[in-house]
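[audit] Reproducing an earlier prediction to check determinism. Same input, same settings, fresh worker. If the tokens differ from the archived copy the diff job will pick it up downstream; this log only records the rerun itself.
[audit] input (142 residues):
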Amino acid sequence: MSTMIFVNLPVKDLDASKAFWTKLGYAFNAQFSDENAASMVISDTIVAMLLTEARFKDFTHKAVADTATTTEVLLCLSAESRGAVDELVDGAVGAGATEPRAAQDHGFMYGRAFEDLDGHTWEIMWMDPAAVQGDGVTHGVS
């Protein structure tokens, strides 16, 4: 079985967050969702758990980050093409997100970012597969 990642994110309004992500084409796993949490399926191995702030606090003794003044994490997702990067970020902005910086274009790699309704930063990037083939670097954990 592949290693999975479950990213837990606090949200102020669970219904608004679900509506935002639904507009971007993401679905939710009802088996792991309730009035305090929504299990957003990003891929077969990536799930974002959107938790009400009260539910999120059940898992930590630290204060929930104020994303208006601090960055708690930068989440980066790959895209199939430059166009897919633009489509997702433009859709996010159209659904209420903000774009915190200009696109970054390095030729072989292109990325943009958006901050969702709760200020979580999502970076969307495309990298030319030819640019990373045979780079001689061992990726991952052995």
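[audit] rerun output stored. Observation attached for the diff report: The two ends are 15 Å apart (CA to CA).
[audit] end
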